[in-house]
Amino acid sequence: MLSLEQVKQSLERAGQAHVLQFWPELSGLERDAFLQDLSQLDLQRLREHCEGAARAAAAPPGSLDRHIEPVPPESIGSVRRSGSKTLTEWEHEGLLQISQNRVGVLLLAGGQGTRLGVQYPKGMYNVRLPSSKTLYQIQAERIHKIQQLADRKYGSKSTVPWYIMTSEFTLAPTEKFFKENHYFGMEPSNIVMFEQRMIPAVTFDGKVILQGKGKLAMAPDGNGGLYQALVDNKVLEDMKKRGVEYLHVYCVDNILVKMADPVFIGFCVSKGADCGAKVVEKACAAEPVGVVCRVRGVSQVVEYSEIQPETAELRGPGGGLVYSAGNICNHFFTRAFLQDVAE
Ligand SMILES: CC(=O)N[C@H]1[C@@H](OP(=O)(O)OP(=O)(O)OC[C@H]2O[C@@H](n3ccc(=O)[nH]c3=O)[C@H](O)[C@@H]2O)O[C@H](CO)[C@@H](O)[C@@H]1O
């Protein structure tokens, strides 16, 4: 732990000295705990984050749009436009990989569910189905089912491990919920929960916010915190040990999610892709979903808040939207790709 003097100096250098404004009012115990938290702050990294966010916010509207282009047709596979032979080939490839224990699923469940307005992890939400099943139970049953389908086709005894990224807010209640529900019939060792990092919440001008006189307001570092969390928690090592080469990543609030969807997995594997995104055609230009596209030649998601309405409304020769690949936060990654990103 750093001394108060050291912490003071680095806070001053980083323009964050205000966080110590209530120091004289803190008890001895509170001071120790606060100093401990402050010693662990990576102020340099925080500054880089804030500067990056400020730059993005200050960029003139439309600056992304000038460099945007659709994903090339050869990288796209469409369920709607492909014949049943092609779809069956992709499905068989996906099931084959599952039967060989080479596929895992990863749930992004570190968000706080603020928009849903619940005080507990979203996966515990009972969506009022007649069965009263929660999102977690529905997902567990889908893992059982896909294993069963692969086993039936290839005579295997497959396992699709379930990786669950949580945060400081969601780990303990999620663990408790799974335990109380007997892991929904799954082998507990095949459910790997891990925590993403927390970062300080800041104001628009990059000042760290206090939650209390001796406590920083912290928040999970976004779903892009996944890559760091995979390393911090040795998840890539776990995948390697199990022989998992492909990961299907999805978000918690998608009740229709086809976990380890064999068609999607099979398509990505047969393309030799190192990452992929499953998309749904946008219903209308203004639909508030991100679009998968290319910016300066690099494939990425451009959020609906980033794209200009004129770009979103562009239509191709057939009359369809040029940017219609709606992101539903369903991603495919090879372990090798994730390892590469991590390094
Ligand atoms: C960045 C991103 O993916 N955006 C997509 C996401 O938006 P959306 O606004 O839903 O993205 P969020 O970041 O809120 O949440 C997506 C998922 O990430 C998880 N989460 C979030 C924050 C965090 O720190 N840790 C964490 O695990 C949430 O629990 C959730 O499962 O879904 C939309 C609809 O499907 C897409 O159109 C958006 O393009």
UniProtKB/TrEMBL annotation:
Keywords: Nucleotidyltransferase, Transferase
SUPFAM superfamilies xrefs: Nucleotide-diphospho-sugar transferases
Region (Disordered): 56-81
Gene3D superfamilies with a match to the protein in the record: Spore Coat Polysaccharide Biosynthesis Protein SpsA, Chain A
Database matches in InterPro entries: Nucleotide-diphossugar_trans, UDP-sugar_pyrophosphorylase, UDPGP_fam
GO MF, any single term: UDP-N-acetylglucosamine diphosphorylase activity
Keyword Transferase assigned: yes
One Gene Ontology term from the biological process aspect of the record: UDP-N-acetylglucosamine biosynthetic process
Protein name (Swiss-Prot/TrEMBL): UDP-N-acetylhexosamine pyrophosphorylase-like protein 1
Organism: Notothenia coriiceps (black rockcod)
Primary gene name: LOC104967460
